[in-house]
Protein 1
Amino acid sequence: MATPVYSRPVGKRYLGNTNEMEVHDLSNERSACQVGEIIAARHAVTFSPDTLQQARAERYDNCAHCIGGSTR
Ligand SMILES: [Zn+2]
């Protein structure tokens, strides 16, 4: 399940961008991910469970900068 967040999540690893349908790994965040901008634009979601597998199941694609292996 994806839950909208309006500030930087604490204790979560993965953050989805509902606008681009991409998922970011906050443990490997790069400036190019623009996570601050995603949150400010209110496009951020977290996942439950907090796993890449869950994000992928909800059709979020891997960010090329912090995860890689995009499938599109
Ligand atoms: Zn990223």
Protein 2
Amino acid sequence: MTDAIDVLVIGAGAAGIAAARELDAAGLRYRVLEAGRRVGGRAWTEDDSLGVPFDRGCAWFHCADRNPLRVLADEHGIAYGDNPALVYHVGGRFLDDAEARALRAAVAGDTERLCAAGRAGRDVPAAELLDPAAGHAPVRDYLLTAINGVPPEEYATTEAAADDDSGQDWVARDGIGTLLERLARPLAIDAGRPVTAVDTGGARVRVDTPDGPLTARAAVLTVSTGVLAAGAIRFRPALPPAKTRALAGLPMGVAEKIALRFPGNPFPFAPDTYLVVQPGADRPAFGFHLCPGGHPLAVGYAGGPLARWLGHQSTETARAFALDSLCRAFGERLRAQCLAATRTGWLHDPLTLGSYSAARPGAGAGVRESLAEPVGGQLFFAGEATDPVDFATVHGAWQSGRRAAREAMTALAG
Ligand SMILES: Cc1cc2nc3c(=O)[nH]c(=O)nc-3n(C[C@H](O)[C@H](O)[C@H](O)COP(=O)(O)OP(=O)(O)OC[C@H]3O[C@@H](n4cnc5c(N)ncnc54)[C@H](O)[C@@H]3O)c2cc1C
């Protein structure tokens, strides 16, 4: 019976679901093997923790004006909002509109300098081109680190240049995890079936799982670079050196959330406002998505070293840290209004081992294309890390799954 399978898809995150839909639409015989008990991977909406939907992973349709998942959200009844308002609380007060505009322009100027360097072929850490003493540096570095999962010292100028961000960031009100769950419903997915080995030595690909092996004419691999680098899947023969070099060049950055539940919207801002609080020298700048999708939450978002630190704290400590920052902006009265908290743990999750890929400075401009390169006409690579433009996003993962499925179909037809 397993000989009837054309393509095995490994992983049921955005890339795996997109690949499976593509194969399904083309009438191929496929099966998706997912290690976890749920589909969606890093797209995960849940309401068990706080009683309202909370996206533990992706929440924003980045590049929403050209995002294929945003289009699918329309078809599947998933509502979304508009670009967030950005507000800043710096040194004990909220910046007025003119100050906020000046800060945004200073950050944009720095970002453009990084892009220009990358475009000119300079593959260096962003930190080399940023002034650490600039007045806007704490907010800039907070944003850069949260968005990319790595601090300026580990963020490559080539990444800044490659990232074709349209600047349209719209929040999925019902959750991107909810959307992916709906998209996955008609598909043939075996959840709770981890892949432990992939053998491309024979005429058919052989994939080992604790429930026994499966074979197929081709396989699409979508697991994170964190999982691949940890050796959770054995490859026979070993992956070629170019592939292992690409993997080494694309480690996982870290981003974690701490979500605080309130009885209603306690903030003097519309839902989906993004607030950055920069209290002073005693605390790092920290940001919050306020009332995401209209839900009564404040979602603190940490990247890089701060996320790693948070990941090692108890939920209570993480909650206290986030509340301390929020209270700097809104006053101590807020503390007693916080009903509950939950935090994410992507860094320690064995099925991701980090949040999203970030090319190491010096890894080279084509490193993501190298990771995407098929092996031996049988093994095809997808996942956010393989998208040369929209890496580290859910729509990049989606596009990569469609691309890898098409590559597999072309190879099978040849
Ligand atoms: C905190 C956080 C916030 C984010 N915010 C945004 C955002 O707002 N907007 C945005 O666009 N992107 C965001 N992202 C990034 C986005 O979520 C990811 O880029 C995207 O979901 C990755 O999809 P993927 O299919 O490549 O990988 P995954 O979602 O990781 O899918 C891979 C799947 O493989 C499974 N797997 C692992 N090992 C095995 C194995 N051995 N056998 C079988 N299956 C296995 C995993 O369980 C997983 O389901 C965020 C990510 C995080 C962590």
